Amino acid sequence: MKDPTSPWLFARRSLAALSTTLVLFGCAPTSGPATDEADSFDISELRWGSASDSNRWIYNGPLPALVEPSIVVSIAGHTARVSGYLPQGFSGPVPFYATVTDDRGRRRVTVVYPVATGATTNAPGSYTDIRGLPYLPYAANSNGDFVPWGGFPFLEYNRRRNIAFHGPITHGMTATGVEWLLKRGPVSRGCNRMQGEHVVELAHLIGMQMNNTHAAFAERSVRVNTTVIEGYDVLNGQSVDVNYPRTAGAVAPSGPVRMFRTWWSSDFPRWVCAFKSGRALDNNHCAYEPPNRLDPATGEEPANAPTVMIDNATQGVLSTTGGPWEITSARPGYVGVNYAALAAGRAGEAAFTVPSRVSGRYRVLARYIAHSNRNTAVRYVISRRAGDAAPVTVTFNQRTGDGWADLGVHELGAGARVAIPVPSTSDGYTIVDALRFDRAP
Description:
The longest helix is centred in the middle third of the chain and has 10 residues, at 196-205. The chain is built from 1 helix and 30 strands. The protein has 2 domains: 43-288, L,D-transpeptidase catalytic domain-like, CATH 2.40.440.10; 307-439, Galactose-binding domain-like (Jelly Rolls), CATH 2.60.120.260. The chain is globular, with a radius of gyration of 22 Å. The protein is mainly beta. The model is unreliable at 1-25 and 29-53 (pLDDT under 50). The strands form 8 sheets. It has a 9-stranded mixed beta sheet, covered by helices on one side. Strands 20-23-28-25-26 form a 5-stranded antiparallel beta sheet, with no helix packed on it. Strand 15 and strand 16 form a beta hairpin.
């Protein structure tokens, strides 16, 4: 989501942010950088301008406010599982990342979001209501400091220790510009950071009416049972996880796992947008944003999409052997939230499975982040279909170029694969980030 006022471009979330003048303790919008979230970057980078840089975020997504919503937060799993009933009379489509089950004749919806948890402080227990601040404008706190809450809702469930769900706080440079990006791991001081689009949707699901605007610092109290547990969340005998990368210190559950899908505002820009004065506050308020890229029912590109992109973090498309391969965000320019890297002198292989919807004639491009310490002879082996007896090999120098290795135009069919084998004689880091398929004539 681009910021219409900032001098920087943000593909998912943008805005400067604020702290209120309330004297609070946990991660609430309070007394400045000494509190929860200001310890991870240089706050001065986000001090841009005036109160006019504040946006009210509008939810135009597919889900309604839920009846009897509840939330389970897993500290070990870095997940927030939200469930509740669809209201009677709701007949709209349910998006791909939400599951619906029958509960004695009522339709129960479950959505799982990735969250960050406390590196030093957490608050396991049960809480019965949420104090929500739907709109926090750009402003200095009582110490004159600026904490980047992103303009997103602040949903406080632990009033005594001021622990809440709020925006991602952290950011990074990607191939499309500077973006707000959640670091999913033990990085806060108790709060649950979320992607900006996710916390806006969560606020709407629990009844904060995010399809409307709100006055600055206005509060609403909603009845929501929130349970915070130390271990992994379990649903129907399976550990709960969500398809979003982890940072160091966040460990995936083992054994039977139920993997939930998630969504990004870069794929669905019309689901959450900045309020535009003069536009009607209706289900089409966000129509000024570019069209949604993916099919909301499947979460995938339409069959006739001219461009398909898969990332190293896309569930089920990348496998690695040897190494060890590092998952990192050390250098800017990557697609998504990170990339895979193999150090010089280490043997291994990374292999992308091409989605079945990529069928036909495509130009194939591979994303990397150029640098002087890169492998000068990265081999991309393109198997155009299952059992390809003569795969095409393209060798590329990752120290040069614009970050896209052009692997040529190929006729792709079922079982297509792009492998990057790396010998132990490599002379630098081999970077594996994303593949792009542009339909070719």
